[in-house]
């Protein structure tokens, strides 16, 4: 025994290569087991397919419900900003390009809005991770398209109209002030409102919702037959 420890003390350095050889052998065994496990897994999948069965899909990571709500809130915020133009006649007169689907940037925004609306989850629905990514990308495109369209509309204002048309827009804006002035008489408000509709006719299309909002501000109910004939809105360039 004494001779063994004397030998071990003199040749202690041999322990390192021996240890390395041992660990290498263990790692080799582990790798072979892993390869065999993968092979068995593939064979099982092929067997299931050959028998006409469905191959179980890998588990998808859970969807972050808070992220889905954040994306919905971002979409609603853009829609709210857009509706400020759609429902406010004064804003439409000031920035008419925002209501004109024939404008390329406005048309691009409307297309992006449609895509985001189609991908929006229904009430109580939780999107899959893949659909959530699609929805998030669509809302991002929606936000960017609105920003671009709004910036351009505020830049050009009424530059796309002739001098005579711009004069009509200015007149409509002045009459709108009278139509929504509660200090004016009901007759004055109604007359100004009719003039506003006449000046805008053929220049800017007011949606039914915009008309409803305007009539609430004017605080009157128009008798039947006094409202100008409805016009077909311009088709957006989609």
What percent of the residues sit in helical stretches (DSSP H or I)?
Answer: 55-70%
Q: Element order, helices and strands?
A: HHHHHHHHH
Strand content: under 5%
Compute the gyration radius: what is it?
35 Å
| Poorly predicted sequence stretches spanning 5 or more consecutive residues | 12-16, 221-238
**End-to-end separation:** 94 Å
Q: How does the major sheet shape up? A: none
What structural category arises from helix and sheet content? mainly alpha
| Overall pLDDT | 77
Shape: elongated
Number of E-state strands: 0
Number of helices: 9
Keywords: Membrane, Transmembrane, Transmembrane helix
Give an overview of the whole structure.
By secondary structure, the chain is an all-alpha fold. Among the domains are: 62-160; 162-221. It has 9 helices and no strands. It has helices spanning 2-10, 15-50, 65-87, 89-94, 104-119, 129-156, 163-179, 186-200, 208-218. The N and C termini lie far apart (94 Å).
Quick rundown:
By secondary structure, the protein is mostly helical.
